[in-house]
Amino acid sequence: MRIQKGPGWSRPRAYVAAGLAMFLSFMVGSVVLVWSSGVEAKPLSSGLVARGSVTKTLASNWPSFRGPGGNGVADGTELPDRLDVGDGTNLAWRQEIPGLAHASPIIWEDRVYVTSVVTSGPPQRFIAELPDTPESVAGRWLHRWIVMAIDKHTGDVLWERIAAEGTPRTGRLRKGSFNNSTPATDGQHIVALLGSQGLFCYDVNGNLLWRVDLGVLDAGWFFDPTFQWGMASSPVIHEGKVIVQADVRGGAFIAAFDVANGTELWRTARDEVSSFSTPAIIRTNGVSEVVTNGGRAVRAYGLANGEELWTLRPSSEIAVPTPIFAHGLIFVGSGYLPQQPFYAIRPGGVGDISLPSGQGSSLQVVWTLADAGPLISTPIVVGDYLFIMQRDGTLSCFDAVTGIPIYTERIIGAPELADETSLPRTGESLATYTASPVASNGKLYVVSDLGDIHVIDAGPFLEILGSYSVGEGVFSTPAISDGMFLVRGLDHLFAFSR
Q1: Which CA distances in Å does 487 have to 127, 187, 208?
Q2: Rg (CA), the chain
Q3: How does strand 39-41 pair with strand 342-345?
Q4: 56 Cα distance to chain centroid
Q5: Which CATH number describes the domain made up of 3-497?
Q6: With contact defined as beta carbons under 8 Å apart, do 147 and 184 qualify?
């Protein structure tokens, strides 16, 4: 792995020395969507980025994909020591969720909101496949897209609404669903992006406030128009605006809608192929930037008017991970071969900030990793450490400020693979990792496609504190709220509590 550093390169802490010793032997195996509350970054008075600037969030609410700030971290809440469905340890409740969906749960106060899609045809199941198998599945039967509100403490369904009904307007990835996008809420509105069915907004009592038809959103393989994968980017709510990133074939765009009434406020065309990342919103020096990860470039837009602010190339054609913000830096990358770039970027750029050929850094691009971009999971920063999760169960830890690698190890229980053709299959799932990690109080929570939950110390050495199972496949990123850990499986929503 090649590390390239720039202005602001600083000496790591003493306990990171172990990571430096590993550097020469450091290797990355097969390198494999966020809302933001508008985190205010402090101005950089010099070329240095201060340590300890990661925003800490008390996770009473988890209002969007990967929680408040979109960074996946919920400090200040103690989660259960064990997360075991088999013997019921710390299992507060489980609620059956009809249909098939990758959408993650969101939480506001005492309510959990989920979306799904139910078919009138044979039961939908995920089809065993290599994660990047491009073949799509058509929706030949009547489908119902639903929005549900669930009591956070009891698991009881408070209300359920049919948002749309009909035949899907596009196909889906065989490992995907017709509902991949996580909803978002500001406590008054629940906004759900249901792919080509449209953008829907409900109030907390389940009343439909507005709906916007976005047309056919064909997020498919750019090499073959017959391969349709389905939308996966999730909506963002910030400052009264709903932001939608629609990187689709034949008319990619990013747009803002008024959360009160659905009025389109602005729309900016994007020169992009299909990608599946959720935009992140950060605020520096009083200016809000909408940062996007795309298959052709990382871009930022002004929240007020959608004007493109800066562009960074190259990317890796298929972009899934979402940008995150910590230590005054934007972390973003993608891992579709052959290019797997990962960047640490200072916000506030102007124009084309791409690095000249052979140059590894600049004032705007603090450091880069040439081959560490993840394919699916969004990275996470906990304290001083950046963690990148690969789909094969490989976890890499870096010094977040410098980019210096600390360790790369395969999680215990993850399969040893000769190549991707040997991926083990259990039932209708693969022993790989799709969900993005989340964290609380110095612990990482990593969930496999098979439903295994690994609790990992978020420090400079890989230490697995415990491994548990929900007993069914999991493809959705967990949520955290008030000491509760919620994870959505193929058939149920599970809630763990101390």
Answers
A1: 21, 21, 26
A2: 21
A3: unpaired
A4: 18
A5: 2.130.10.10
A6: no
d(CA 369, CA 170): 36
Where are the extended beta strands (E) located within 44-198? 91-96, 106-108, 111-119, 136-137, 143-151, 157-166, 172-173, 184-185, 189-193
Q: Which residues, including other chains, have CB under 8 Å from residue 30's CB and lie 6 or more apart?
A: 390, 391, 392, 394, 417, 420
Cβ atoms of 28 and 408 closer than 8 Å: yes
C-alpha closest to that of 197 among 176, 177, 237, 170: 170
Q: Are 415 and 392 in contact (CB under 8 A)?
A: yes
- Classify residue 259 by burial, with Cβ atoms within 10 Å: 0-12, 13-18, 19+: buried
Domain boundaries, the chain: 3-497
303-338 burial, b at 16+ Cβ within 10 Å, e below that, comes to beebebbbbbeebbbbbbbbbbbbbbbbbbbbbbee
Range 160-176 average pLDDT: 81
**Chain centroid offset of residue 212 CA:** 24
**Is 449 within 8 Å of 411 (Cβ atoms)?**
no
pLDDT per position as a tens digit, 106-143: 999 999 999 999 887 666 665 444 444 555 566 667 88
Side-chain half-sphere exposure of 40, counting CA atoms within 13 A: 3
Burial 433-447 (b: 16+ CB within 10 A, else e): bbbbbbbbeebbbbb
Indicate the helix (H) or strand (E) that contains 492: strand 492-497
The pLDDT confidence band at residue 412, using thresholds 50, 70 and 90, is: low
pLDDT in tens, 305-335: 999 999 999 998 889 999 999 999 999 999 8
The pLDDT of residue 53: 35
- DSSP class of 155: -
Please state the rounded mean pLDDT for residues 10-35.
Answer: 30
